[in-house]
UniProtKB/TrEMBL annotation:
InterPro entries assigned: Methyltranfer_dom, SAM-dependent_MTases_sf
Listed GO MF terms: methyltransferase activity
Lipoprotein among keywords: no
Keywords for the protein's UniProt record, in alphabetical order: Methyltransferase, Transferase
Protein name: Methyltransferase domain-containing protein
GO biological process, one term: methylation
Pfam families tied to this protein: Methyltransf_31 (PF13847)
Domain spans labelled Methyltransferase: 37-152
Length: 198
């Protein structure tokens, strides 16, 4: 998606609907992070930190990575406002550059659908993860009602599992956990949680 679109949206990104959806996602991801007190987390495509800043108490450190400077400005303001001491932000786009980063956990929350080359980004994330590191993806199930030139219309469980296996991920678990009204391009949609390890 055009980066300027996200820059313009940044200050009004945290709408009621987005905040409600983030709560649902946070609740789901918290279960995945139960034993992660000593772990580092990268939230890739973090936006304003709606999801990951609510997880700060579960991990050792959080790095919010986004390719929109404005989104990260909003996130930084939240970090200082909430007094979160273990979160930092990084302006970066892993589809354009490979950073020298390592992390125990990588989270993609409603981000994969915006990245044209699914396999390439998953390879980048595989490389960033420490051995036995965990990738957590929250995204939409495939939805034939949606057609947009810049966005995947969700993902089929079989296809995504296949790509992850090809990249080298193992212990892939995927389940649909939420059905919502008009949550994906104004269409009713289902969200899945996927976790896998390196």
């Amino acid at each position: 998606m055009d980066i300027n679109v996200f820059e313009q949206m940044a200050n009004r990104y945290d709408t009621e609907e987005r905040m409600e959806l983030a709560k649902v996602i946070v609740k789901e991801v918290r279960q995945e992070l139960r034993a992660s007190k000593t772990k580092s987390l990268i939230d890739y495509g973090s936006g304003t930190g709606l999801v990951s800043l609510e997880l700060a108490d579960l991990v050792d450190t959080i790095l919010l990575v986004d390719s929109s400077k404005q989104m990260l400005e909003v996130a930084k303001a939240k970090i200082s406002h909430k007094g979160i001491t273990n979160a930092k932000v990084l302006y970066s786009d892993f589809t354009q550059e490979t950073p020298e980063l390592k992390s125990d956990v990588v989270l993609l929350s409603l981000v994969l659908l915006h990245i044209p080359d699914t396999k390439k980004i998953l390879e980048e994330l595989f490389n960033i993860l420490n051995d036995d590191g965990k990738l957590i993806i929250i995204d939409f199930d495939k939805n034939d009602k949606i057609s947009h030139p810049k966005v995947h219309n969700g993902f089929s469980h079989e296809e995504l599992t296949k790509i992850l296996s090809e990249v080298g991920f193992k212990s892939i678990e995927m389940k649909t956990f939420y059905h919502g009204k008009r949550i994906f391009m104004n269409q009713d949609a289902a969200m899945f949680r996927l976790s896998c390890t390196k």
